[in-house]
Inverse folding.
């Protein structure tokens, strides 16, 4: 006897699998699930290629489970500072006003950096320096004069244009999932956190994402401050690194304030630090002194952010964030030749991508919060990301299932259980 599946059964099965996949529907809120998930991406200019490369691995692991989905369908919050804020917007903004897909996949983010990095970090006075090169004076005094003139180092025009072109008029309230992007108001001297969670009460924060991105990435000494007005409020913004170069703690705080008592799953990605310079290339050496003289108050905010982030997450927040739910992927031994956040030469960008790929096969490192030394664990970052993908996928299915049962007016508490292999399909 031939076993042909009846057309009806086939149809029903397809419908069911589409339902389980959720038609790439937005992730139902954490109240339907067991966890709140956060993706957090540090600042670091062109070194953003490193976390984007790591994210590409996770994105592909999730797409292998359900090709219709993107990172925004799994994370309740995507948070980023500076270059990480830019990435956050690209991963969370809809491709068009009624699309459920983001503008970019992580792999397209890497392509974005590679294509436009050289234009974003094109020296302002390229022409002048070229002419100087032909001049008769000896190089050193000429260079000193020219260096002092070029603060900030870049005019930011290209970044402004490309950001506006890509993000169009999309506002914070239109993102596919919640975003949390810190920035710093250099006039009022306090951090401004662009967060979907705050929009209910702070409507003036519903800015265009392009303005949010230009704010968080206006790295002092590299790019000019970004000024704009929204809803009658004036913003004079500099880089979110002035508030928190690693935004994980900010994102965790937003979640705890607004989503109740759920266990947190946190993936936090760094942009690489060299063994002896933890601030990495946050500041451009030449412009640093001049800027420091003018802005000491701003600078002091930035100094302590990253180690203290680990410290607070492991101590104050340990109840919300068990150790096993916190994955930090960072290159703690970046080759000093790759430290500059503005070296967008093709060779350096290729090297940064390789750092990201190599990180996948390295051991997971956990910071010892007594001496702030990274301690290797016995699994690789890729293995940890695979496990995270399993958890995120199971969480998404669980929420979709509970939500659909609620729609059919069946009580969902206590009737559905996630077994350890995820949700069984039957
Ligand atoms: C966004 O839309 C463009 C044009 O419609 C398409 O080429 C691109 O693949 C889309 N990107 C994503 C991530 O879906
Ligand atoms: C987002 O905000 C804009 C401007 O305030 C408003 O016109 C729009 O309806 C809002 N959209 C959503 C999805 O809330």
């Amino acid at each position: 006897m031939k076993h042909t599946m009846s057309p009806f059964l086939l149809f029903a099965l397809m419908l069911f699998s589409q339902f389980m996949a959720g038609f790439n529907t937005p992730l139902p809120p954490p109240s339907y699930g067991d966890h709140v998930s956060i993706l957090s991406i540090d600042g670091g200019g062109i070194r953003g290629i490193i976390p984007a490369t790591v994210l590409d691995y996770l994105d592909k692991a999730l797409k292998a489970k359900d090709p219709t989905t993107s990172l925004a369908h799994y994370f309740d919050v995507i948070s980023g500072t500076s270059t990480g804020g830019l990435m956050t917007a690209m991963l969370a903004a809809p491709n068009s006003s009624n699309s459920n897909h983001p503008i970019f996949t992580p792999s397209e983010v890497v392509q974005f950096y590679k294509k436009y990095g050289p234009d974003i970090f094109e020296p302002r006075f390229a022409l002048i320096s070229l002419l100087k090169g032909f001049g008769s004076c000896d190089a050193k005094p000429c260079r000193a004069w020219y260096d002092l003139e070029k603060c900030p180092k870049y005019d930011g025009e290209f970044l402004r244009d490309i950001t506006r072109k890509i993000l169009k008029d999309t506002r914070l309230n239109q993102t596919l999932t919640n975003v949390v992007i810190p920035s710093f108001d250099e006039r009022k001297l306090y951090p401004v956190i662009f967060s979907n969670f705050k929009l209910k009460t702070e409507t003036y924060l519903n800015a265009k994402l392009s303005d949010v991105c230009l704010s968080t990435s206006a790295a002092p000494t590299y790019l000019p401050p970004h000024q704009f007005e929204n809803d009658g409020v004036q913003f004079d913004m500099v880089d979110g690194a002035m508030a928190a170069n690693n935004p994980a703690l900010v994102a965790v705080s937003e979640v705890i304030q607004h989503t109740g008592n759920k266990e947190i799953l946190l993936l936090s990605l760094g942009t690489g630090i060299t063994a002896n310079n933890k601030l990495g290339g946050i500041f451009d050496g030449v412009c640093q002194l001049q800027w420091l003289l003018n802005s000491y108050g701003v600078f002091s905010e930035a100094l302590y952010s990253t180690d203290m982030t680990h410290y607070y997450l492991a101590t104050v927040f340990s109840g919300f964030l068990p150790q096993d739910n916190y994955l930090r992927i960072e290159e703690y031994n970046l080759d000093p030749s790759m430290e500059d956040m503005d070296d967008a030469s093709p060779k350096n960008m290729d090297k940064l991508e390789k750092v990201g790929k190599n990180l996948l096969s390295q051991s997971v490192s956990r910071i010892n919060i007594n001496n702030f030394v990274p301690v290797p664990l016995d699994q690789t970052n890729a293995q940890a990301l695979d496990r995270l993908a399993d958890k995120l996928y199971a969480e998404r299915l669980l929420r979709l299932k509970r939500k659909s049962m609620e729609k059919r007016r069946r009580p969902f508490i206590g009737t559905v259980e996630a077994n350890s292999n995820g949700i069984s399909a039957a």
Observations:
- The radius of gyration is 23 Å.
